[in-house]
Specification:
The protein has no helices and 10 strands. The chain has strands at about 10-15, 20, 25, 30-35, 40, 55-60, 70, 75, 80, 90. The chain has one domain. It is about 0% helix and about 35% strand. It has about 100 residues and is mainly beta. Iron/sulfur cluster (SF4) binds near residues 58, 68, 74, 76 and 79.
Length: about 100
């Protein structure tokens, strides 16, 4: 099982319109990947910037059919988020 210390970093996020994005880095404390297309469920467009100073991690992932998913947690070393079928999708997703 993934421990909280080893949660994968969001290595890069090209969705600069997101309130958690600063210079193409994610600064949400933790994101949740969900939805039909492994979309970033934490993505939000709002009139101010939010988040923490450090890079975000993947706190939870609902895509149990991804090869990196173990018990609804991500075991990839890191993930990339960017435009896919949705505005913000997990681009590291790979079907088993
Ligand atoms: S790589 Fe797979 S398990 Fe990890 S966050 Fe993306 S979709 Fe979820």
């Amino acid at each position: 099982m993934t421990s909280i210390q080893s949660l994968p970093t969001v290595q890069g996020c090209s969705v600069t319109s997101c309130a958690y994005n600063e210079s193409s880095s994610c600064h949400a404390a933790a994101i949740t990947v969900a939805g039909d297309n492994a979309k970033c469920g934490t993505f939000v467009e709002i009139s101010f910037k939010g988040g923490v100073s450090s890079n975000g991690v993947v706190g939870a992932c609902h895509r149990s059919e991804c090869k990196f998913n173990d018990k609804l947690e991500c075991t990839a070393g890191s993930v990339e988020i960017g435009a896919g079928r949705d505005v913000a999708d997990c681009l590291t997703y790979e079907a088993r």
